[in-house]
Automatic annotation (TrEMBL):
Stored SUPFAM superfamilies: ClpP/crotonase (SSF52096)
Transmembrane regions listed in the UniProt entry: none
Name assigned to this protein: Enoyl-CoA hydratase
GO biological process, one term: fatty acid beta-oxidation
Species classification: Bacteria, Bacillati, Bacillota, Bacilli, Bacillales
GO molecular function: hydro-lyase activity
Superkingdom of the organism of origin: Bacteria
Originating species: Heyndrickxia oleronia
Swiss-Prot/TrEMBL keywords: Lyase
Family: Belongs to the enoyl-CoA hydratase/isomerase family.
InterPro entries xref list: ClpP/crotonase-like_dom_sf, Enoyl-CoA_hyd/isom_CS, Enoyl-CoA_hydra/iso, Enoyl-CoA_hydra_C
């Protein structure tokens, strides 16, 4: 597929999506969001892709939704546009998504980062929700996902101030997994992705599903869900192979099925 605002590649079993509007710090216009969603859905259905990696070309991950595109919008137009339905699709991707953030991840850019399952960042990365300074607020999950990560007290402080947090702060609050010098960020992210890609794919998938239930559901409901996924894995060839290999004291040969 030919995309206008992103670049898509595959290196072995890693699907790579690069945001590609570097002149405007990868400001996310609506077509770009559609392209991200479309490419992720294709990768999700492509058996040869095991892990998706997302990062930005140029100086930044993404400095927010494209302000020029929405400056004249009115509420009815936004309601009818229903643009956030596409963002919901991102939350339904079953394969692991790892984001690598350098430079700015602001507003919609931060929201896109928060959709990733794991986040690696460069030491100079800056995260924030400056929407308040434009007299608006996050609309693609920012108030919800940040609050689930930090708790309401800290989340309100960041959302009301509009200030940017450093990678160090983001790491301390569990928003990102790891920090690296910028020169090795992508390389380290890909290294991590390759390792994850070699794990039994169905376990990776069902663990992701179950963990997000912990975010959304009560403990009781989440555990019912976990139990179903646990049982379901015993229908896979990989489960038979994994346990047989253990008993036979050899390395397993996983097929992803
Ligand atoms: C459109 C943007 C942009 C954005 C940067 N640019 N962010 N264009 N939308 N969100 C453009 C600038 O206009 C400029 O274009 C070029 O990118 C380089 O940016 P500079 O401002 O010159 O760079 P710098 O001085 O380094 O400042 C970087 C910055 C600043 C601090 C990140 O660009 C900034 O404050 N950007 C806006 C951040 C923001 O408010 N984001 C939230 C948007 S609201 P020219 O043509 O002048 O070179 C939002 C709502 C989400 O995200 C709703 C759900 C999707």
């Amino acid at each position: 597929t030919n995309y206008e605002y992103i670049q898509v590649d595959q290196e072995e079993s890693i699907g790579i999506i690069r945001l590609n509007r570097p002149k405007v710090l990868n400001a996310l216009n609506r077509k770009m969001v559609s392209e991200i969603v479309q490419s992720m859905r294709e990768m999700d259905r492509n058996d040869s892709v095991r892990v998706i990696v997302l990062y930005g070309n140029g100086k930044s991950f993404a400095a927010g939704a494209d302000i020029t595109e929405m400056a004249q919008d009115d509420s009815i137009h936004l309601e009818l546009l229903n643009q956030f339905a596409e963002w919901d699709d991102l939350a339904h991707i079953k394969k692991p998504i790892i984001g690598a953030v350098h430079g700015f991840a602001l507003g919609g850019g931060f929201e896109l980062a928060l959709v990733c399952d794991l986040l690696f960042a460069s030491e100079d990365a800056k995260f924030g929700f400056p929407e308040i300074n434009l007299a608006v607020m996050p609309g693609a999950g920012g108030t919800q996902r940040l609050t689930k990560l930090m708790g309401k007290t800290k989340a309100l402080e960041w959302l009301w101030s509009g200030e940017m947090m450093t990678a160090e702060t983001a790491e301390a609050w569990g928003i990102i997994n790891r920090r690296y010098p910028q020169e090795i960020l992508v390389e380290e992210t890909l290294k991590y992705a390759r390792n994850l890609a070699n794990k039994p794919a169905l376990s990776v998938r069902f663990i992701k599903e179950a963990v997000y239930k912990a975010v959304d559901y009560s403990l009781y409901e989440g555990m019912q869900y976990e139990r179903k996924n646990f049982s379901l894995l015993f229908s896979s060839d990989d489960q038979k192979e994994g346990m047989k290999a253990f008993v036979e004291k050899r390395k397993p040969n996983f097929k992803g099925r």
